[in-house]
Amino acid sequence: MSEFKIGVREAEGINVLELKGYLDAHTAPKLEEAFSSLLSLKQFRIVVNCKDLSYISSAGLGVFMAYIEDVRQNKGDIKLTNMSPKVYNVFDLLGFPLLYEIFKDEREAVTKFKDSK
Amino acid sequence: MSEFKIGVREAEGINVLELKGYLDAHTAPKLEEAFSSLLSLKQFRIVVNCKDLSYISSAGLGVFMAYIEDVRQNKGDIKLTNMSPKVYNVFDLLGFPLLYEIFKDEREAVTKFKDSK
Amino acid sequence: MHTESINIESKTERLIAVRDFVSTAAREFGFGDEEISKIALAVDEACTNIIKHAYNFDPAKKITVTVKRNDKAFEISIQDTGKQFNPAGVQSPDMKEYLSQFRRGGLGVYLMKTLMDKVEYNFTPGNANEVRLTKYLTR
Amino acid sequence: MHTESINIESKTERLIAVRDFVSTAAREFGFGDEEISKIALAVDEACTNIIKHAYNFDPAKKITVTVKRNDKAFEISIQDTGKQFNPAGVQSPDMKEYLSQFRRGGLGVYLMKTLMDKVEYNFTPGNANEVRLTKYLTR
Ligand SMILES: Nc1ncnc2c1ncn2[C@@H]1O[C@H](COP(=O)(O)OP(=O)(O)O)[C@@H](O)[C@H]1O
Ligand SMILES: Nc1ncnc2c1ncn2[C@@H]1O[C@H](COP(=O)(O)OP(=O)(O)O)[C@@H](O)[C@H]1O
Prior knowledge:
heterotetramer, A: 117 residues, alpha/beta, 4 helices, 32% strand, C: alpha+beta, binds adenosine-5'-diphosphate
């Protein structure tokens, strides 16, 4: 019954957030904390692996919007990966792929960060 | 949202049922079908792997009771394995470990069957 | 007193939503995982019995599950308009005998009584049965 | 006409139970996974807005979500007793502009309208707001 969990991994200056479960108005503050602690540590190269993310509502989308500008101004990015079709549909419906890079696989996002060093 | 699933594997005459999800009055008939098709194929050496079983109610327990006698009369057994504490608690509360062999791991149950050949 | 409720059709497809509804409220009340599991199972058994026995699988019938909480007690009231039935009248099985005779069924009411601190029954002349399941928080 | 309902406290902790409740009924009605996801999301957005805006996070307030089904239409009515609010009055964002300006929030009502076939609002003088979300089955 713990409905939403975040795992954090770091390798070569790239931080991977693994989201698991349901991201809604109840759980969005957890994701907000995770981003804000990365930013306070000056970590701006962020990959969000959505493999186990079962659900997202606009409250979850709002968290990504809250940090993307700041992250990019610091020469970083938030790249999203491994979305289920269900979760991708919500991003897609609102045109979010215009603003966020979305990859099939985490490694592609990591590689992209490394190549842009 | 498919709340209950059963996988069936067979190796050396031992059938392993893998239960996944919620076993309640709604889903118990699926397990009943699985048992009855094994029995109609004269398969009586049955291991039920409960690793991914999240829930069981008395309707689920009833299915095990419905087949155990028949299975044993045919020199077979229903052995249960890999239960989460939550599911084990229900079996335990009702004394089911008196009637059913319950193993930590699937391999132990398979070995037991093989040794008793 | 906090009160929340769910009103469903009498179908086993609804059991999962009822368990989720009750579990969320139980978690918030302060129960841990083990107690929450017990409460959800007891409510499942009560609803399953109504679907099967009180309504004979008629899906046009309705069940209302109401959760009431105060500081110490978590009470679930389960209401139906089917056959009158007092769980107090059901004798608890001798489990050793039960298992050795390979019996089947007849464990639902026993589970409700074992899992909860209190099981009460109430019949209102408007032809409504109410089973009240209570668990206390021991902080 | 089939009618089922859930009456909950105004808390984001309840969103998951509401989504489950609505999803189960939508599945039974005959919708596929994609439609079910849309319906659950639309209802989540409506409830989230009530919790945040109509009730200002006061958990003592209540929300009722009622699902009504007939042969062709699946309707969810969401009722609260908070601030009067007609979603029809909210202008839909231009998403290109929205994204390029790094805006945040203001997508809930737009999602509701996009995900469902019909969004209606109804105010009853007894100080109750009702939002009705409808989706039709195209078999
Ligand atoms: N809600 C109910 N309405 C009418 N009869 C009931 C109800 N619940 C239980 N019963 C009766 O009590 C018996 C015992 O119930 P239970 O212990 O749950 O076992 P089971 O449902 O497996 O028979 C049932 O067989 C049924 O005859
Ligand atoms: N149920 C409601 N009661 C009162 N005001 C509401 C309600 N729903 C939405 N609103 C108003 O409409 C605006 C737009 O809502 P929405 O599109 O969901 O975005 P957000 O909730 O992120 O602001 C809200 O900011 C709020 O002012």
